[in-house]
Amino acid sequence: MRVHGTIGHCQVILLIDSSSTHNFFNNKVVENSGLSPNSEGSFEVAIANGEKLSSSGLYDGVCIMLQGVPMVVDFYLLPLGGYDAVLGAQWLRTLGPILWEFSKLQMSFSTCGSNVVLQGMHRPENRL
């Protein structure tokens, strides 16, 4: 599910992807937000098509806004195509119980005593 968000002062499109093991963002986000890595470590990531990419740097405790909801997330730097950032199982595990309603592209969970509903972005319909 794709959602709008903010990292630093940078408007971003994030992919919420339960099949991704970690959270990632691309170089553009780092350049536009002025973030610095906390760790220089790198590791290889196998993406959906089987290709392997190298992550270069860990960014701990990055403040993001998801549709007005502040969150703190750890990200790895990875060249991403099509998205500014990916929130994977690393982030999803921190949320506790989650309700997905795919027909409405909504994801609901509770954080800090408040119920949160994230609205996914609708894709334009393909016409033949």
Automatic annotation (TrEMBL):
Pfam families: RVP_2. InterPro entries: Peptidase_aspartic_dom_sf. CDD domains: retropepsin_like. It comes from the Eukaryota. This is RVP_2 domain-containing protein. It comes from Cephalotus follicularis. The lineage of its organism: Eukaryota, Viridiplantae, Streptophyta, Embryophyta, Tracheophyta.
